[in-house]
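Hey all, quick one. A colleague (J.T.) asked me to put the flavin mononucleotide job into the tracker so the inputs and the structure tokens live in one place instead of scattered across chat threads. No bug as far as I know, just bookkeeping. Sequence used:
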Amino acid sequence: VERFVAGADVSSAIRATAEVLGDGRLVTLDHLGEDTFEESQANATVEAYLTLLSRLEAFGLTEGAEVSVKLSAVGQSLAIDGEKIALENARRICAAAAVVGTTVTLDMEDHTTTDSTLGILRELRVDFPWVGAVLQAYLKRTEQDCRDLAYSGSRVRLCKGAYQEPASVAYQDKHDVDLSYVRCLKVLMEGQGYPMVASHDPRLIAIAADLASARSKDTYEFQMLYGIRPEEQRRIAAEGNRMRVYVPYGDEWYGYFMRRLAERPANVAFFVRSLLTKS
Ligand code: FMN
């Protein structure tokens, strides 16, 4: 788990952030947790983000480090008024980010939340136009969502998607997901927004670099997860690209960790090996 998660507390998050920023990469920090069913838990998550943001400022790290937020961790999945509470909570985090001079990206969760999350994004962008969106190439709707969000100033992270989704809404075949990713990349790179290319897939990264060749390097960025292909992350950054690392921290690592194991057999092998060598 330590390979993919910076640590349980805010101090380890700050330590990992300083280390990643130290060699020219950027950071987006995620306080682990999702699917909160208690309002008090949602509030605790907001507090964790506020603490994190003030620590980032205290350590002078806000220039290179932003935060990623899962709306289901701040109220979206509450049975009563979930959407309203998530919006209010996300607004508090955005306001705090604005004060310290950094940005927020709304992670995207399973397809039942897509409309709600994009709705909250729209509302937040009225006051905080820099709030980032995430779109998942495995969803059939995403190419159209890319068109809708490819406007000036619009930060959009494109990823393949990490949840188990039904065939009615999502491509099931890996190759179809890749083709969709490329179509979405084209829309975003030809548009006026700020594409954030979140993938570890060498072919997709090469295609993204190619599609971005007419753009200046400060109008888009690459993103990868903490602990996955770190040498490649450094290489991409050393070539003068913006390369942002998604750094999760906190003790609720189960859901995050299981998605990482599910998507790459190599991650399972790594995990088993580290278990064996530790005992
Ligand atoms: N998957 C999601 O479903 N929602 C997200 O918000 C999300 N954020 C991600 C952020 C970053 C920086 C990266 C690299 C991936 C993210 N993912 C997210 C996971 C991807 O959808 C995907 O499962 C993972 O990157 C493996 O695919 P790859 O071969 O393209 O790397």
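Adding what we noticed when we looked at it: The longest strand covers residues 243-249. The pocket of flavin mononucleotide is lined by residues 107-108, 134, 136, 157, 159-163, 198-201, 223-225, 246, 263 (CB under 6 Å).
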